[in-house]
Amino acid sequence: MTTQTSARPQLIDLHPPSADMHRLVQDGLQRNPRQLPAWFLYDNEGSRLFDQICQQPEYSLTRTEIALLKSSAADMARAIGSGVIVEFGAGSARKVGPLLEAMRPSAYVALDISADHLVQSTAALQAQHPRVPMLGICCDHSQLDALPDHPLIRGTRRVGFFPGSSLGNFTRDEAIALLRRFRRLLDGGPLLLGLDQPKSKSRLEAAYNDAAGISAAFAHNLLQRLNSDLSADFNPDQFRYEAVWQETESRVRMALISERHQTVSVAAESWTFSAGEPLVTEYSVKYTTEMARELAKDAGWCWCRRWHDPADDLSLHWLEAAD
Ligand SMILES: C[S@@+](CC[C@H](N)C(=O)[O-])C[C@H]1O[C@@H](n2cnc3c(N)ncnc32)[C@H](O)[C@@H]1O
Questions:
Q1: Which of 103, 169, 216, 255 has its CA 20 to 30 A from that of 134?
Q2: What are the start-end ranges of the H helices in 31-114?
Q3: Per-residue pLDDT tens for 239-264?
Q4: Which protein residues touch ligand 1 with a CB less than 6 Å away?
Q5: pLDDT of 299 over the 70 cut
Q6: Cα 74 from Cα 196, distance rounded (Å)
Q7: Nearest CA to ligand 1 atom 7
Q8: Helix (H, G, I), strand (E, B) or coil at 191
Q9: Share of the chain above pLDDT 70, in %
Q10: pLDDT exceeds cutoff 80 at 1
Q11: Which domains does the chain have, with CATH numbers?
């Protein structure tokens, strides 16, 4: 039986120190093409902008996934069972509500890289679900070796939840490594994984380059973040945002394109961009069911079943740890 809990969930802060961020920027700027980890997009301002993207008419993923969860949560709960729900990359935690009601978990644990946003999200969710004990963990989940030892997690079956097609930010090898890591973090428990599916080029490019310019502002905010957190001197006006569907790789590539030949300094180190050179801010890989099943198998998971919306735009896949 659960009891009434306090209004503000506890936060465990494991955010990587700025020295680690600097090393990751150095690694990323040496790549060809240059690319930074997608989590760099999510400081407090980035998280706020992402929430605005979710409300744009061209970006239907969030609305569709929430509707699917509302219509199927009871069925998911019957199939998957319960325990403590562990959500990876929880963001504003606006999707888990139907699962909290249908699964009646012993606790809810939200992991996210964006600390202030995570505090606000878990506090808002706690107010809506006062009987579910909640905990926030600020971390890079792609580097986490174990969940912290905490009474809400200890000795309890773990049910993973990874919505938003966030796995699409990773290359195939990285996605396999991440799913293997989640398998360890969930300690034998199942995973409910939300993945977006391929669609027409025009629809996908519009979704990631909305007419209101919020996606562009979200990408440009990454440069502002590097300027303030790592003493860089990017001029965002000298980089143009672009989102392109790359069909062969089944992914949208989002990038900032250098408008001219220019040299930028990051923590006193110089980096030269040629005119037209991209800085990749994130990828969004789109998975057919076949791709999802294959990926799960290669990462040590058994694919059990999927739930999808009426138009079959996206799926929530139920995975169980393979023996
Ligand atoms: C695409 S948003 C999805 C948010 C929410 N789950 C949804 O479905 O709307 C990705 C979320 O994951 C977080 N995130 C991205 N990379 C991360 C990482 N490596 N470790 C932890 N959190 C990460 C971001 O801060 C952001 O809240």
A1: 169
A2: 44-53, 61-80, 97-103
A3: 999 999 999 999 999 999 999 999 99
A4: 38-39, 42, 47, 50, 62, 89-91, 95, 111-114, 140-142, 163-164, 166
A5: yes
A6: 22
A7: 164
A8: strand
A9: 98
A10: no
A11: 10-14+55-199+286-321 (3.40.50.150)
